[in-house]
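User: My instructor asked us to take a sequence, write out its structure as tokens, and then describe one feature of it. I'm not sure where to start. Here is the sequence I was given:
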Amino acid sequence: MRFELHCHSYYSKGEKIPREALPSPREIAKRVSALGFQGFALTDHKVTTGLEEAKKAARKFGLVFIPGVEIQTREGHLIALGINEPVKNGLSLDETLDEIKSQGAISVAPHPYDIKGEGIKDGIKKVDVVEVFNSLNIDKLANLVSRYKVRRLGKPCVCGSDAHTLEMIGTCFNEIDAWDCDSALVEIKAGRVLRTERYTPLSVIVNWSRKRLEASYQDVIDYINRNYRFPKNRIAAYLLRKFVNSESRIWNVLAHLSLNLSRIYGGFKILTYF
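Assistant: Let's start with the prediction itself. The structure tokens for your sequence are:
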């Protein structure tokens, strides 16, 4: 059975850009079904608000549903799969792992070595499973480090699309011999997973950025006005308007330039992981 194990609904909120993800839980379930997958986990940032809605939608489309959440620990992001109730954010990694275990759920380290520094890095030694491939790590270096580190630890592995739009769902997926949530969790924890890994196209990421900025436009303008001084605030607001209102190829060119710069930055940052 094919599973999407890392995706976000519009209940996931960002700090500077509130509209972090775009689809509803029902839209996610419908998309998963249309792709011919048999199951998915909803892993919204910090909240479990959409789990009941996702569970009902999964039942309607005949899908196996794994209730999850992406938690903010003091050391970085951590996914819990198979939870029965919310998991508190802001605890230490050890405290969070204890709470996940108490629910009979499993812990997954998402994008542990991403260049933004949001992963738990060498905290992967303590988790049940490691996400060795994240489709949004298009710098590629972060995934290479994860794979190298996990190979030495011998940890069970999964991949995750980290989907924030419908187009991102299923970019990579996991094949698991399971028939319900409990059996899927057993197989994942045992490392009996076959991964299909692909990166999210840069054009899809640019389009996602435009849509979320459009949906959060006034919030971003307010943030600029509160935190930037003249002329930085005027320049930032001008560029925001241009980006939201234009689909010119220049934005894809700039995105490619940013990607290449991130790879250079990532190359230097990798050295700190060894």
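For the description part of your assignment, you could build on this observation: Residues 250-270 form the longest helix (21 residues). Try explaining in your own words what that tells you about the chain.
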